[in-house]
Description:
Largest interface: A-B, 18 and 20 residues
Strand content of chain B: 5-15%
Largest sheet of chain A: 6 strands, antiparallel, barrel
CATH superfamily of the largest domain in chain B: Type I PLP-dependent aspartate aminotransferase-like (Major domain)
Shape of chain B: globular
CATH class of the largest domain in chain B: Alpha Beta
Radius of gyration of chain B: 21 Å
CATH topology of the largest domain in chain A: Rossmann fold
Number of helices of chain B: 13
Helix content of chain A: 10-25%
Structural class of chain A: alpha/beta
Strand content of chain A: 25-35%
Order of helices and strands of chain B: EHHEHEHEHEHEHEEHHEEHEHHEH
CATH class of the largest domain in chain A: Alpha Beta
CATH architecture of the largest domain in chain A: 3-Layer(aba) Sandwich
CATH superfamily of the largest domain in chain A: HUPs
Number of helices of chain A: 8
Number of domains of chain A: 3
Number of strands of chain A: 18
CATH topology of the largest domain in chain B: Aspartate Aminotransferase, domain 2
Number of domains of chain B: 2
Oligomer: heterodimer
Radius of gyration of chain A: 21 Å
Shape of chain A: globular
Structural class of chain B: alpha/beta
Largest sheet of chain B: 7 strands, mixed
Amino acid sequence: xxxxxxxxxxxxxxxxxxxxxxxxxxxxxxxxxxxxxxxxxxxxxxxxxxxxxxxxxxxxxxxxxxxxxxxxxxxxxxxxxxxxxxxxxxxxxxxxxxxxxxxxxxxxxxxxxxxxxxxxxxxxxxxxxxxxxxxxxxxxxxxxxxxxxxxxxxxxxxxxxxxxxxxxxxxxxxxxxxxxxxxxxxxxxxxxxxxxxxxxxxxxxxxxxxxxxxxxxxxxxxxxxxxxxxxxxxxxxxxxxxxxxxxxxxxxxxxxxxxxxxxxxxxxxxxxxxxxxxxxxxxxxxxxxxxxxxxxxxxxxxxxxxxxxxxxxxxxxxxxxxxxxxxxxxxxxxxxxxxxxxxxxxxxxxxxxxxxx
Amino acid sequence: xxxxxxxxxxxxxxxxxxxxxxxxxxxxxxxxxxxxxxxxxxxxxxxxxxxxxxxxxxxxxxxxxxxxxxxxxxxxxxxxxxxxxxxxxxxxxxxxxxxxxxxxxxxxxxxxxxxxxxxxxxxxxxxxxxxxxxxxxxxxxxxxxxxxxxxxxxxxxxxxxxxxxxxxxxxxxxxxxxxxxxxxxxxxxxxxxxxxxxxxxxxxxxxxxxxxxxxxxxxxxxxxxxxxxxxxxxxxxxxxxxxxxxxxxxxxxxxxxxxxxxxxxxxxxxxxxxxxxxxxxxxxxxxxxxxxxxxxxxxxxxxxxxxxxxxxxxxxxxxxxxxxxxxxxxxxxxxxxxxxxxxxxxxxxxxxxxxxxxxxxxxxxxxxxxxxxxxxxxxxxxxxxxxx
Lengths: 357, 388
């Protein structure tokens, strides 16, 4: 098969390319140039492109750099900024995977005559009865099925995930065996367009004015403090929130940028049992799941999946929601929730963006 | 790669055998330091001075005005920074005037000066929709504190030739004293008679690898009494204008390439000029193809076009698969094709600019290359239109 491998310069995609070559595929590497600005983290720096190119040279395959900086700005960075300005907590990596890697790159690969696209994600594609399913990666610590949760049959049918069945240690062993210079490169963890040394606040301040707000106890109305950056407060977070006078921990329960008000509460006061889903963003890997289906819902990259019932109430203003079987800390609007099957907890059923909880 | 059709001379031209042979003598065994006094040094010095004579002749300047550098970027940097630094040591304010379509070697040098020195400012000269410098805009940009004006001889992306006579006239008519003019002639060097077209300009930058010589070899040529500070001092070489031991092999390589260019220029211009017509006539028939700067006078070796609805990345990928080496003209340090500041200065619609391609030819280009390119590009464009 003619395979286009998305190479980030990291060890996972390098090994993915190496294994596909060993399997006899006709492999071409491509690195996506996404962020036009300064970067010291993530997968966009010139050094990472250099690594990917050098790995491709060592493997003896062609390597191309595809420029998606404009699309990245439009689909990822601008919505990230706009989301924060509206008091939401968007996940830029998911938007990047969705709009850039798995829309634009797949379309391009098809136009350029490739049979399949491969990436170095820790997730697997299961083929069963003529259908393809996204399955969690074998390495629990590294599983990335969450960030790929909205892939559907059309994508999955032409997607290869060569390292998804491996533990990270096996990946590194392969890298060493293949003589790849990235074999001991640390994993990238951060958002590529935010300099790790400066953080989210510095980045957002370069784009928007951040809003000062009063931190208020949501129940008593008591003023507990101030923040100069309401946009950085994430619903459910405790970090940066001082305990109340009673010494008990407080969590953010509501962020109202316009009113310059952040509400906090004790854990038992803020727990939620319903998560509302954004209908246009809701995707299912195959046919839509029926009303009242029990699923496992996960709303952060390495969060613990929670049992929930997916409800579809057409009469309701927000028709799709998740009824949690056990109360949970509130989930910030803008976050993505991925649905796994309750009876086959490794298999992804769909994904959606949270509008509120 | 079995067959290769090389259409990226403007990025780097094929190395000439004659150049490699001439340089070989100075790349092994004892090579004296040209600044020394013994026989080996004298021999090296002689080779350097002969090279200097050839280069001076190439641009119609005196040998004493030739400053050897490590390439076009350094030459441009030295011209702009050297003159501006000298000026700002003697004046309260200093302004630098450059066109918006200059190579980043010039733009970045100017931005660095402005960043580091509060007394230095930059003024940018507009271009028309063909990328030709607007002389009225240039006149407006000039001021009594202007130290240096830099306008390239021809643009490296589009091949558009700039009106250097007009630049000189505008500076002269301004009556401002001491304004030094510079032209980046790197892209024009294979094609134009630099002694003629740059005659009224004070400083000229050239480099070797666009004319079949080695990379990291170039020169800044200064006419008359231009005052400039060395950017890299130390050692006093090149009359104190560029420190460091002169690379004899590089100087000989540049001079050899210069001699070959002068000897062959008329023939190559005529032959490649015909190829350019052939390509343009064929490309015009392709869906969505628009010729860039069609109304301007352009170098014979450059064919710059845009394809509506297609992306450079994809065109280049398929061309590469078919053995054609071409460029989107503008690339960043990662190797990705990036939005071109030249096309932006021409106010080209960014959507159109996304589908831009540059094919650049040279002395080695053959009829067979041209025929192959037309066939391959036609099938690539058809295929991308069929798939999208």
